[in-house]
Every structure is written in C-alpha cells, then in structure tokens.
Amino acid sequence: MSLVLVTRDDAVATVTLNRPEAMNALSRALRAELAAAMRDLAADESVRAIVLTGAGTRAFTAGLDLKELGADTENLGAANAESADENPVKAIELCPQPVIGAINGVAITGGFEVALACDILLASTNARFADTHARVGVMPGWGLSQKLSRIIGIGRAKELSLTGNFLGAEEARDWGLVNRVVAPEELLPAAQALARDIASADPVMVRRYKALIDEGYALPFGEGMALEQARSTAANRMVSADEVEARRLAVMARGRERAG
Fold it and tell me: Distances from the Cα of 194 to the Cαs of 1, 51, 98, in angstroms?
C-alpha cells in the first residue's frame, strides 16, 4: 500500500498522507515517499498548485511515529534532519508551487509543523492543532518555535507550546492560523477549488510572487521592502504595454464572470 497518494486534476495535484490506521504518523517510509512525491511535482511545470491532506477524518498527521522513536533513539535525528527524505517540511519547501494544507483532523507536534510548512491552510470542523514538544521532551526542529509566534503572536504561541493544549478549528481561524473552516465533506472540494483559482493565474508570476513573499517574510521589514523594490524593478522592466493591457482585460472579464 502506498503511504502517499497523488492524484491529478488538470493543473492541481492532491497529495494524501495515507496511514489512517496510525493517524497518518510520519514514519521513515512515509517521509521518504512524501519527499519523492514532492520532488516529482516540483519538477512538473504542468502542476500549478498542490493540496496536501491526510487520509480519513481523525488526523491530518499526528507527527513523527512515536513507536518508531521509542524503538531506537537514533530515530530522534529525524527531528533535526535537513534532507527532504527525512524532514517533511523540507519536502514541502521543495515545491515552487503554492501548497494548500487541507487540515482534516488533528495536526499534532511534527504534524503541526507540516501544516505550518503549507502556504495556505483550510480546516474542517474536525481539525485541532497541538504542540506537545514540551510534554514529549523533544525540541522542535522543523520550525514550529519560530513560525507559530510570527503567525499568531508570541503570547498565544507560548500558551500552546508550553501547555500542549489543543486549539480547535474555529479558534485557529480566529487566531489567524487557518484561513477558513468548513464542514468535513466540504474540505477537499474547497481546497481544490482554491487551488484551481490559483492555477488560473500565470504560473511563472505565481511562483515568483510566492518566493518574494516567503523570502521577504524571513527578513527584517526594511530589508524585505528593499528586496521587493529590487525584484520589482528587475521584473517590471521586462513587461510590455501589450501584456499589461491583455491582462487588464482578462482581469476585468474574470471580475464580471465572478460577479455573475
């Protein structure tokens, strides 16, 4: 049985973590399959957006496989791995395309970190988030301690990480962690619809814009603004008036179509 399933619908790929009997825990084998899948999708220019979800309704992913960790302490190295084959966050980061996390159930500890590696998060009403690093006794190594506070604020991040308590889907939306919450049966259609919307834009522009946002977000504000100025100046020199007019008309037509 494949531990990672990949399906395609035109320019949108859906990647499913497929260990529902183990709450989609990130075993060594699953991490390797995820890296291989993400490498293939990253290299496929016909794929313009990716949806990442978990099989079943109980879990997006419960994080690293604690049974595997308990059997051999050398497995703890996965928490600090830098290769995409061992570190699923690095695997997701291989993708220049936007990755939408469809959080169908619990996202716990390493699973929370995998969720935070996605560009956009949608959640079902079954979704819950928890950081249990402090209770398990393993320091985060896939970015949670730094990313979470930047998204929801340092006080809220400390509350979650130092208690290990769960955060429900609606509160996650209210705190700015997820963009919206839908019924379980609506989650994958909603995520795929959003992916199709992104895929309808110019793919080169989408990839470059995503990179600009991510690289700027990692910088102090002034340096981020300077990065935007440099990238914008270089890119906009290459845009012709005819291209701008054609895209302006396309934007107007899309607006009329969406307005009904």
Answer: 29, 9, 11
